[in-house]
Specification:
InterPro entries: SGNH_hydro_sf (IPR036514). One of its GO terms (molecular function) is hydrolase activity, acting on ester bonds. With about 70 residues, the chain is mainly alpha-helical. The chain contains two helices and two strands; from the N terminus they run ββαα. A two-stranded antiparallel sheet has the order 1-2. Helix 1 packs across helix 2.
Length: about 70
């Protein structure tokens, strides 16, 4: 990724917080993170789109792995 999900090694960056929020949203609502259009101030739209795509891919892969088990 072109940006770090953590700053100082322990605390999430804005991108890391956004990625975590997308995971929580998807798990609680069963919604598709690709449909989320809100972007936090300070995070570019392209970076937010990349994060949504990566989080969505990870969640779908996890879901498919669980279905295959």
């Amino acid at each position: 990724m072109p940006f770090s999900l953590y700053r100082e090694g322990n605390h999430p960056s804005l991108a890391g917080s956004y990625a975590a929020a997308l995971v929580v949203y998807a798990c609680l609502s069963k919604g598709d993170v690709d449909a989320v259009r809100w972007v936090p101030r300070g995070l570019g739209g392209e970076h937010a789109a990349l994060l949504r795509a990566r989080v969505g891919q990870s969640l779908r892969a996890r879901h498919m792995a669980g279905a295959a088990a």
